Amino acid sequence: MKKIALSLTILLGALSASNATAFDGDVNAGKEKSATCAACHGPDGNAPVNIYPKLAGQHADYIYKQLTELKSGMTSGGKEGRMDPVMSAMAMPLNDQDMKDLAAYFSSLNMSEGATPKDVVDVGAMLYKAGDAERDIPACAACHGPRGNGSSLAKFPKISFQHPEYIKSQLEKFRDGVRHNDLNGMMQDIATKLTDKDIEVLSKYLGGLH
């Protein structure tokens, strides 16, 4: 918990010290460049296959960060950034402006709504909003907000309405150390404390979080 609190303090201090760099992606250019993305993420940014993330409505800064780090994952052989066999290869030919344009385009779209199964509402809400002090698990809402909208400046992603299957896979990757491009290892630290049941409940809860 101390590690997470320190990370947030450092982050908030940096954000208050200087404004984030103006995002200069071009929505129209991004739309033209998004044709190859549509196969997995859908023409409207709402992935038709639930193992792929919805990009519509996601923060442009976050999408840009992930694309740059996916490319870095490939060029460094997985030692840096974020390595994904499919997406790292897709990011390789993209230049910096391509990434900004794609990020601007997908962030301009509307994410489709999801639903939360009734049997996970109570447990999911408690874990998301309050965490679990006995297990030193902080509230997810502390970073991602009460409605799961995240933060553009902090580059915390919008996670509400995301496919539960995708969220589940990413939490498992953070827990296993397969994905390690999170700020100061915050998500890895949290995920290692989550049980399979915790991950299942949170993933389903977020699918319909308003």
TrEMBL record:
Binding site for heme c 1: 37, 40-41, 87
Every Cytochrome c domain range: 25-110, 119-210
PROSITE patterns: CYTC
GO cellular component terms, A-Z: periplasmic space
Protein localization: Periplasm
Principal subcellular localization: periplasm
Secretion signal, residue range per the UniProt entry: 1-22
Superkingdom as given in the UniProt entry: Bacteria
Matches recorded under SUPFAM superfamilies: Cytochrome c (SSF46626)
PTM entry text: Binds 2 heme c groups covalently per subunit.
Keyword Cell inner membrane carried by entry: no
UniProt keyword annotations, A-Z: Electron transport, Heme, Iron, Metal-binding, Periplasm, Signal, Transport
Binding annotation for heme c 2: 140, 143-144, 187
One term of GO molecular function: iron ion binding
PANTHER family: CBB3-TYPE CYTOCHROME C OXIDASE SUBUNIT FIXP (PTHR33751), CYTOCHROME C4 (PTHR33751:SF9)
Protein name (Swiss-Prot/TrEMBL): Cytochrome c4
Source organism (scientific name): Pseudoalteromonas arctica
